[in-house]
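Reopening this ticket.

The earlier resolution said the output was attached, but the attachment link was broken on my side. Pasting everything inline this time so it's all in one place.
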Amino acid sequence: MREIVSSTNEITPAWLTEVLQSRGLLKSSVSDADIEIIGEGVGLMGELARLRLSYADDEDLPPTMIAKTAIQSENIQVARILDFYNREVNFYNHYADLCGLNVPASYYGAVDQETYDCVLLMEDLGNVSPRDQVIGGSAEEAESAIKRIAGMHSRWWGKADDDWLYPMTSDAGAEPLQNMLYQPSVDPTIEKFREFLDDKSISLLKRVGDTFPEYWSRHMQGTDTFIHGDFRQDNMIYPENSLDAKIIDWQISGRGKSVFDITYFMCQSLPATLRRDIEKDLIQMYIDELNQHGVTDYSVDACWQDYRRMILGCLVYPVTVCGSLDLANERGRALAECMLERNLAAIDELNCAEFVQ
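Inline output:
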């Protein structure tokens, strides 16, 4: 059986029949599959298509699915460096039903370890869009997000030890981030986004690259747990009249310090003025939620200091996006700008630069 297709264009009824039968989900066969490319030119790390399926007999499977395959651009080098595809497929195959968050159903997932082709068949959420990260989240959305991610963190607090889990906020995780992503992206970021940078921020970007492991892994006080790794507004699909968002895009999930998820969300998905007004309350809320789930070894003060340090660590995302990824559309450029501006504003307001003097 051919387990992997290299792009959404290679998906056929025969292939779908084989992989869905292999998972025990399909009794008859897929008789027809109409493929519609969606999100073209928007997604950075995967190709997406909507599959409209016909079955030879009555089936419990839905009439539509979303197929996600490896990106066919230079961006795949970033995916390889950090093993994005294995991480997402492993999440859906092992943790999705246990994480406690609202996530899309998954029907099939596999990665070719030689070619690094990848395919995921997932629940079709319909003609919906995530909240726009460029606009930024609201206070109510932020509170819901922090409460819910605290519940997930508590489930694996000190117990995230499966071999396939990528060591996210460790020295092993810091090295490729520093040497293969952050530092090669600094000068291109300065060149492409010079209008958003002054001499002080340029100096800071360079110093962060030189000392990256010091605050990414070596001085975090929290216990390791399972983390989403890309917990931001663009990866949250909200049902109508509900704050219980479906959380998507698990390509950067792994084992690490929980403070990363909450810091990344707060310093890059919230408008700077809102983040400034509610960040201390959100940290307190996060610790209260951990306590309610039985996690009592992480204090508000320790979390606050970890938060300040990790705001520097979070620079790896906007710097990598600004400096190394193909930003071939206006929305991608706008997202890169807001991530960089918000992250630098948080660093300045909380005097995070003291950690890299």
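Reporter confirms the inline version is readable. The mean pLDDT is 92. Residues 50 and 66 are 5 Å apart (CA to CA).
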